[in-house]
Design a protein that fits this description.
Length: 120
């Protein structure tokens, strides 16, 4: 592109543009871009984060209200009324074998002669 994409402004038009708010701001940004562009941007992000923290706090407070606190008696009754756990029964329940095969035990498969036992 031989010519820039910036349109040509005549002398009067350029003076009018320089006196406008946008023209003055653009001149300030060119002089000190951090002070007039970077700092306001960072402050707006920090302020937005502060405002949004109220919304997230409200969300967590609502979730905390749903959780019920147990008093000491309820906690003790839950602990005392637990069922006894047998690891073998739990294994069979997970496998779905408890009702079908009550006396079933895992057994090693007999190997053919000369076949490796795959033991390390």
């Amino acid at each position: 592109m031989a010519f820039g994409s910036k349109p040509f402004l005549g002398k009067k038009e350029q003076e009018i543009y320089d006196r406008s708010f946008i023209g003055r701001y653009q001149k300030l940004v060119k002089k000190n871009h951090f002070l007039f562009f970077g700092l306001p941007m960072m402050l707006s992000i920090a302020y937005g984060s502060y405002i949004l923290s109220d919304f997230t706090a409200l969300r967590f407070e609502r979730q905390d209200e749903k959780v019920k606190e147990l008093d000491e008696n309820e906690a003790l009754s839950i602990i005392n009324n637990r069922r006894k756990v047998d690891i073998k029964d739990e294994y069979y329940k997970l496998q779905g074998l408890l009702d079908e095969h009550e006396n079933w035990e895992p057994k090693r498969v007999e190997r053919l002669k000369g076949e490796s036992d795959n033991r390390w």
